[in-house]
Specification:
two-stranded parallel ribbon, flat, mainly alpha, about 5% strand
Length: about 120
């Protein structure tokens, strides 16, 4: 999708556009992410999902260098993951309780997570 078409992307019902009260989808992103090759335009639309993954990577790297965590495994959970971020953090499906209803939600959440 070209950046000029991103101005015309429809948002949610009752919202005029995806650019309302947020970063415009055609905003240019700058910088370099080690291990990620930039293909296509570096627009917010194309790079938005990497924010959570890069935040988890930075947290993991900091914890590996902190004296209190030397030689220990870290547990970093996030609801914002991206393919490959399992190296640095784990995906959290959200709040749940130990009830049969919540187990059903967790199982369907795992399937949905793997589909999208």
């Amino acid at each position: 999708m070209s950046s000029k078409n991103l101005k015309e992307v429809d948002g949610l019902p009752g919202v005029d556009s995806l650019n309302e009260h947020t970063v415009p989808m055609n905003a240019r992103q700058f910088g370099f992410i080690e291990g990620v090759e930039a293909s296509g335009e570096k627009t917010h639309h194309n790079w938005h999902s990497l924010y959570g993954a890069m935040e988890a990577k930075a947290t993991h790297q900091w914890m590996q260098g902190a004296p209190a965590f030397q030689g220990k495994k870290t547990l970093i959970i996030s609801r914002s993951t991206f393919p490959g971020s399992g190296r640095y953090n784990q995906h959290w499906l959200g709040d749940n309780a130990s009830t049969w209803e919540h187990i059903r939600f967790a199982v369907s959440g795992i399937y949905n997570f793997n589909l999208f």
